[in-house]
Amino acid sequence: MKVSVIGSGYVGLVTGMGFVKLGNEVIFVDVDEKKINMISNSQPPIYEEGLAELMEEFKGKYYATRDYREAILNSDVTFIAVGTPSREDGSIDLTYVKQASREIGKILKEKDSYHVVVVKSTVLPGTTEGVVKPILEEESGKKAFQDFGLAMNPEFLREGVALEDFLNPDRIVIGVIDKQTRKVLEELYALISAPKLFTDIKTAEMIKYASNAFLATKISFANEIGNVCKKLGIDSWKVFEGVGLDHRISPHFFRTGIGWGGSCFPKDTRALIRKAEDLGEDPIILKAVVEVNERQPLKLIELLKKHIPELRGRTVGVLGLAFKPNTDDVRETRAYVVVKKLLAEGARVIAYDPQAMENFKRAYPDVGERIEYADSATDVLKATDIVLIVTEWSEFEELDYSGKIVIDGRRVRKAEETARVYEGVCW
Ligand code: UDX
Fold it and tell me: What residues does NAD(+) bind to (predicted)?
């Protein structure tokens, strides 16, 4: 099938290349000239495991352009995979979704065959039918579900294993009303053997939010119990191993630590809270989930101060700046909260991350430009005896922590075994 993908960020690029791997031809659309050139020259503009190899292997089966017309006229189905960032008040910013819809709508006017538009971007329930559909209809002068198809197909990709998640998902959720569109999507995903759940459009939109909110809740819940375990001298990882053996609960996604970050959980929980409040609901669980997560990184500093009450003038090493390992992504990273607090306490900070130092400095200049960066984790350990572990990169497992005060936000085994003073956040 011929597929076009609007927006070549993480989701667009991984999804598009996933469809290429499944035997389709893909045209990516983006506004960023640099990205377009990179993709068309088979170079991934982001780091994601397996992506570079895939782009190399399937050269000629995809390219990128800024021209919507070319992309839509030469494809049967178009995925909207643009960003839906948070506004100041937590609500979601639909500027890019609206822009993409307008551009697609204008071209749909000229298209004779039945074209299918699929919203992949995370949007609140009601958006595809309440915002995207009217724009497409107005710009094209055509009717959705009759002259062109429209569906919502959320993504559940984890950064770092996104391609694997695309090809071997736990499930595929497709919000679709008309038969013709359903047929196109069934065909597109035919080679993937996973349960396929067909719902109406707003249900599919909600499944994405409810999934992320539940996972965030699971971690915040574990962290809250973990904080109590810490005070009682109980290992919370063992506790959740035991709890997770109940098949109704599942052992996955139960690691206590300094909390969740990234591009999805913080943004999506905030947007859902905002939406619930707009509807006159008071989502007290979700608000507590977010609050626990905001406090959690500060536990690291609390534990550090048990051993070094006065941080002023002390040098503190920070290992890890990315929001999780195997990515250079620093969006909503817990490292920001930790570093900010250390600086406020008057500490000198020396940090190291294998991939994310540049991004950290650029994304958080208020703290990023006030700290030092080391060339390696070993250099951090040479510079100071006080170490905070913020991201569980595997290379941090190999270090010799002996003689150090280590406060570990992610439970790195070697640190636990060798440090002079070892404190894990919640265990
Ligand atoms: C997440 C969802 O998993 C994915 O389905 C959705 O589409 C996008 O958001 P991602 O942001 O890539 O994916 O990261 P994920 O691996 O899920 O981790 C999110 C955060 O939770 C990280 O900061 C991680 O450190 C933290 N986490 C995860 C925990 O603290 N404990 C856990 O047990 C699992």
Answer: 30, 35, 84, 122, 159, 267, 331
Which domains, ranges and CATH numbers included, belong to the chain?
Answer: 2-199 (3.40.50.720), 212-424 (3.40.50.720)
DSSP state at residue 161: S
Q: Any known ligand binding at 254?
A: yes
Going by alpha carbons, the residue nearest to atom 14 of ligand 1 is 158
Q: What is the CA radius of gyration of the chain?
A: 23
Contact predicate 101/135, CB 8 Å: yes
Nearest-CA residue for atom 27 of ligand 1: 260
Distance 383 CA to ligand 1 centre (A): 31
Count of CB atoms situated within 10 Å of the CB of 299: 23
Across 223-244, b (16+ Cβ under 10 Å) vs e yields bbbbbebbeeeebbbebbeebb
How far apart are the C-alpha atoms of 348 and 313, rounded to whole Å?
A: 6
In this predicted model, what pLDDT tens digit does every residue of 243-269 receive, in sequence order? 999 999 999 999 999 999 998 999 999
Residue 158 Cα to ligand 1 midpoint, Å, equals: 7
- Measured in whole angstroms, how far is the alpha carbon of residue 427 from the centre of its chain? 26
Q: What is the pTM of this model?
A: 0.95
Provide φ and ψ at 123, rounded to 5°. Answer: -130, 150
Ligand 1 binding residues, C-beta < 6 A: 155-159, 212, 215, 219, 253-255, 257, 259-265, 323-324
For 273-302, how does the pLDDT look when each residue is reduced to its tens digit (9 = 90+)? 999 999 999 999 999 999 999 999 999 999
DSSP string, 101-144: HHHHHHHHTT--S--EEEE-S---TTHIIIIIHHHHHHHH---B
Q: Where are the alpha helices (DSSP H) in 129-250?
A: 133-140, 162-167, 179-188, 201-232, 236-244
Residue 397 confidence (pLDDT): 95
Q: How far is 266 from 287, CA to CA, in rounded Å?
A: 11
